[in-house]
Amino acid sequence: MKLICPRAFVSFQNVIILVADSLRFDSAVRARMPFLGRFGSMRRAYAQATYTWPAHMSMMVGFFPHCFDKLGLYNRYIRQVIRMGNRKGTGGGKHQQDPLLLVDDRRTLVHGFKRMGYNTICTGAVTWLDHPFWAETFEHYAFLHDAPRQVDWFVECVRDIRPFFALLNFGETHEPYSHGDVKYIMPEGYQEHKLGDGPLSKSCFRILHLRQIKAFEFLDSIIAHLYAQSRANTIFIFTSDHGECFGENGFFGHGFYHRKVMEVPLLIFSK
User: Fold this and answer.
1) For the stretch 209-241, what's the b/e string if a residue is b when 16 or more beta carbons lie within 10 angstroms of its beta carbon?
2) How many Cβ atoms are within 10 Å of 116's Cβ, its own excluded?
3) I need a surface site. Which of 159, 198, 217, 271 has the fewest CB within 10 A?
């Protein structure tokens, strides 16, 4: 296992984007991560949108959550992970000339990887991933509600194909934070906090936040299983589409601007 550092595109590398839906940065760093922690610390990055659809679509054109650390791949202005198209952009700079992966297509990464001979695979667990775009754009698609089933489906799907570009969206870290055999329902009145005021106490928000942390700890073990079943020369981009408010300024959830909604974890590694 290793952090990503190669300087040139390798044509047979596989790409897997792992999205823990709604996972905010401090939930990730507070969690016990016996697997992902082996690759180093999560970096604080900032989401490209406040809710699932635009955040995932941003990733599909090569714009992942942005990290301000002066570290290539994490900070795209130093070096991009995946650049779509080869036209000079408005930003200029070396990052446009030396991405880790270059996908020469102006539509989406999915179309670009298809043109390069890749199989394209997607599985999602939250409502926006049930949109027709995903089934119509990816060659292999499954909308499944729990991470173990998603990983089993994915492993079976790629058993006899290579190379591939894949997106796996996990729903355990999205409300109500159910995971495995642990099932939750959301407390009454929680939606009122989308307006910044509601009936939930600070202790209730602490419990909800802890549920997300525990859900991510569950995901860590599932991702470990996925990694063990994966091939060499595979790039993993682990992140979230957006974060979550847990009572800050009276707010709960996402879909609106707040610093905690924008802060997400980012970790890039390979096998």
Assistant:
1) bebbbbbbbbbbebbeebbeebeeebbbbbbbb
2) 16
3) 159
Structure tokens at 83: 């650049």
What DSSP string runs through 125-173?
-SGGGGSHHHHHHSSEEEE-SSHHHHHHHHHHHTTT--SEEEEEEE-TT
- Does the structure show a pLDDT above 90 at 263? yes
Are 235 and 39 contacting, i.e. CB atoms less than 8 angstroms apart? no
Count CB-CB contacts under 10 A for residue 37.
Answer: 14
Q: Read off the pTM.
A: 0.91
Least confident of 188-197, 212-221, 250-259: 188-197
Which is it for the CA torsion 212, 217, 220, 221, positive or negative?
negative
> What's the pLDDT tens digit per position in 14-42?
999 999 999 999 999 999 999 999 999 99
- pLDDT per position as a tens digit, 130-145: 999 999 999 999 999 8
Instruction: Give SS3 for 263.
Output: strand
> Which amino acid does the sequence have at 215?
A
When the pLDDT of each residue in the chain is averaged and rounded to a whole number, the result is: 89
Tokens encoding 234: 């595979």
Written as one letter, the residue type at 13 is Q
